[in-house]
Amino acid sequence: MDIAIDTRDLVKCYGARRALDGLTLSVPRYSLLGLIGPNGAGKTTWMMSVAGFLRLNSGSIDLLGEGPFDTRAHRGRLSILPQDSDLPLESRPLELLTHYGLLQGLTRREAARSAAEILDDVHLGDRVNAPIRSLSHGMRKRVMIAQCFLGHPEVILLDEPLSGLDPREVSHMRDLIRRRRGRQTVVISSHNLHDIEQVCDHVAFVEKGRAVRVAPLAEVTGAASLLVYHLTCAPLDLGALAAAAPQTTLSLSSDGLQLTCSYHPRDLSPDAVNRLLLPALLDQPCGLLSVSQGSSLESAYLKSL
Amino acid sequence: MSALRQVWRVASYEWFDALRSRRALVVLLIYMAAAVCNMYWSISFLHKVETKLASALLLQESSRAGVVSTALWKSEKYQELMRAMVNNDEVYRDISGKHPVELIYAWFAFFYTPLLVVLVAGSRIAEDLGSGAVRYVIFRTSRATWSVGKFLGQALMIGFALLLSGVGAYLVAKVRLSGSGAPDLFLNMAQWSLRAWVFSFAYLGLAMGLSHLTKSASKATALGILAITVCFIVTVLLRYFTAETGWRSYLPYLGVLVPEEHKMYLWRSALAPLVSGTVYLVTLGFCYLLCGYARFRKQDL
Fold first, then answer.
1. How many angstroms separate the CA atoms of A165 and B32, rounded?
2. CB-count exposure of residue A39 (10 Å: 0-12, 13-18, 19+)
């Protein structure tokens, strides 16, 4: 597998506290990876280390196969949305982003065009010449996100990109990030698991400075081996259901409203499982509300704790 | 892209951005106003002296300043006063023929430049470190480029402030001394602005070097003011406490590190001391900046 970011045994201490405690994490090239973990788990520290903002106590980073971050090797190839960082307040979005584009090696024309396009993309086309000081919190956040996409960098690190945005913009930004799939490597740190689930194809659970699980999203949520049936009431006869689909394993949630059916994707497809299970289920006096593929990321994450 | 071009990009944007900073703009305007007022009051004072002199000599008084002062500054008394004030024969020789108004402006520019530098530029790096704005830049260019670019951008800003104050002071002199037969001072005043700008490099390096050490803009300004105070104290020590023997005999070595001790070169007319003073002061500025940068280079952001 082609790896965009390979970090091994990273240790970063702040006094006695170990923000990163041997964190090992590889990000496949062109993947959209979501970093999930509680506050203080080390997600932001990891991103800052990859971008060369922090000096590590130990460990190794290989960014795009050219060692740790170095401006000469990685200028214009990596960008980051850092957390809790303000843009220069007197600047105007268009000229600031053009300046950033020039710094990362674009020509003046490319930088100006790229800046105008991306600002338009984040719905700031009408505020490109307004001082950043005069923009609302959400608008500033969109400028911050926009600067990450200037000049098509190979790796983009986004730390809490969707916090502080209104629902319409959240949805739009999710689309904007999703469009990168297969073209750029994007790592997103967020506490909003729904956003991660909507956008990412890989996830990493980070706990106490270590990556405890790194896997494709489908594997974590069981999207390829799990069907969940949402019911109006508990089925009366679970044995009859099990007999209808003998190659599957059935389990019922404690309130009886969720029937989980796990199967091996090599033996069965979701359609096949439905063909076996649904008639038996509809024979029983319980209504079927919906069927979903895999469990939610939230429940998968909470189960992993 | 060459490193120099990167430095220029950071510097030009920094200058552009600094011009829009309200605080820098206010300080710049205050400095310019102070230069203009200083010139106005100095000429008014000169006029009063002239009036007294004219009445003592039973000459006809003039409503304009500068009519009698040509005779005044060429007088032996005035020259003696100058010699005592300058306390350096070579400098005295070089400036003794210059118009007093020009010298008043030069004194003002040299005296207040350190304060201007600290108030305008002293907090710029600390501000960006504190707000996190630096994080948007240093994955696009190196930390060294950013530091040097900020330094040069602020140097341009200070140069602009000095040029404006020079123009303002010149216009006041032009109006107040018109018809007095005083020489056209513009080029001379511009030259003093340029010399004050060279002098500012050392303090700019000091202030911006210190600015790397903190993430608080007000702390950076306070550090800058403290630094110019220390420089002033060291200058006084060097001037009045140096002795032939004992620890005080080592004091002159400290002079190498203090911008004030190289300032006298900039008062000279000959090219050699001017060049050597310029080299000293600019190098000193970069050395101070480098000290701050040395910490910033390894700092977590």
1. 44
2. exposed
Tens of pLDDT, residues A1-28:
699 999 999 999 998 899 999 999 999 9
ipTM here: 0.87
Beta bridge partners of A26: A6
| Contact criterion met (CB < 8 Å) for A53 and B141 | no
Q: Which residues of B touch A85 (CB under 8 A)?
A: 131-133, 135-136
Residue length of chain B: 301
pLDDT tens profile A231-261: 888 776 888 888 988 889 998 888 888 889 9
CATH class (in words) of the domain with range A222-304? alpha beta
CB contact under 8 A, B301 and A79: no
Stated pTM of the model: 0.86
B10–A75 C-beta distance less than 8 A = no
Domain(s) labelled CATH 3.30.70 in chain A stretch across 222-304
Q: Is B301 on the interface with A (CB under 8 A)?
A: yes
Packing angle of the helix pair B217-240, B124-131 (nearest 10 deg): 150
Domain A3-220 class, CATH top level: alpha beta
Long-range interactions of B86-92: CB distance < 8 A, separation 24+? B86/B267, B88/B264, B88/B267, B90/B268, B90/B273, B91/B264, B91/B267, B91/B268
β-pairing, A185-189 vs A155-159, is parallel
- Collect all residues of chain B within an 8 Å Cβ-Cβ radius of residue A78: 139
CB A287 within 8 A of CB A186: no
The one-character DSSP state at A189 is: E
Q: Do the beta carbons of residue B284 and residue B131 sit within 8 Å?
A: no
Does A51 contact chain B (CB < 8 Å)?
Answer: yes
